[in-house]
Amino acid sequence: MNTIKCFCLEWSFTGNMTYGRAAHTASILSNGKILVIGGEGIDNIALNSAELYDLSTSTWIATSKMNNARYLHTASVLSNGKILVIGGQGINNIILNIAELYDPSTGTWTTTGNMNNARYAHTASVLSNGKVLVTGGHGNGYLSSAELYDPSTGTWTTTSNMNNVRSVHTASVLSNGKILVTGGNNGNGSLNSAELYDLSTSTWTTTGNMSNARRWHTASVLSNGKVLVTGGMGSRNIILNSAELYDPPTSTWTTTSNMNNVRRWHAASVLSNGKVLVTGGSRSGDALNSAELYDPSTSTWTTTGNMNSIRYGHTASVLSNGKILVTGGYDYNNIALNSAELYELFGTN
Hints:
Pfam families: Kelch_1, Kelch_KLHDC2_KLHL20_DRC7. This protein has strands spanning 6-14, 25-28, 34-37, 50-54, 59-63, 74-77, 83-86, 99-103, 108-111, 123-126, 132-135, 138-139, 141-142, 146-150, 155-159, 170-173, 179-182, 194-198, 203-207, 218-221, 227-230, 243-247, 252-256, 267-270, 276-279, 282-283, 286-287, 291-295, 300-304, 315-318, 324-327, 340-348. It is mainly β. The protein is globular and about 45 Å long.
């Protein structure tokens, strides 16, 4: 007898956030709650507010505000459970070098050491030794600089510069502990270059170039160790549907099948079944509510149910129960949303 396996995609609204926000961050705390921080608000003003999503009640509660409003910042979960928020653009679009720490046990913020360079649209990666590597972004021009935060001392130290200036790029922690940085904008357009940071030597080395230059793309580390890069804005500002895979042992890129939709500033989430869910994003003169799944075992994309809201510049967090929480983002009028929704993949035989 033939067995038919059906996966049904379901999107459902959950409680609204107190504030509409886009270009914000969402961090999964050790207690399972989701901390949403900052972003650009409905009036295009940087926010210092933060709120917590409780999975057990599907509700949002306010927590204490950051000391500095910011968007296009980063937020990293440290090994001690605290959240390190770094840089971004603040009130009146001032570029920040300020960092601060959120303590989930007290619900309070404290300032910590300032970065050596103010920056936004950068990346932040938690390394195997517990330090945080910050790369590139935009500050005093486009940056190649990188620096390390030491949670044990609350201080920053510079490390060697990347080979290329870049912002709105990606940084992925590989299984060998190295950091893969891909693409971005150098001020003249999108980049196809990629480079690796080696923690043991504090040095950068170039690795194979991507097939397509891209910025505002995503990069996801798959269960097989490869890195899936999707979409973004390419050369001549063309928005892409292409995807490619980086293989760390060979340092090479191979193209894989294209997404069904071109998209940039979307979100990508690795699901518990190993598939990658891509949601939303924008394209020329439009924004998307579409979602699609990449299956690494077949290297194919399948469309799935649409989100309830069009959004880009949003977040997508994999919850402890396997659901995906999508929050905020801009709508097609570039207005920040306060809505949130949940995705769940049901499997039946």
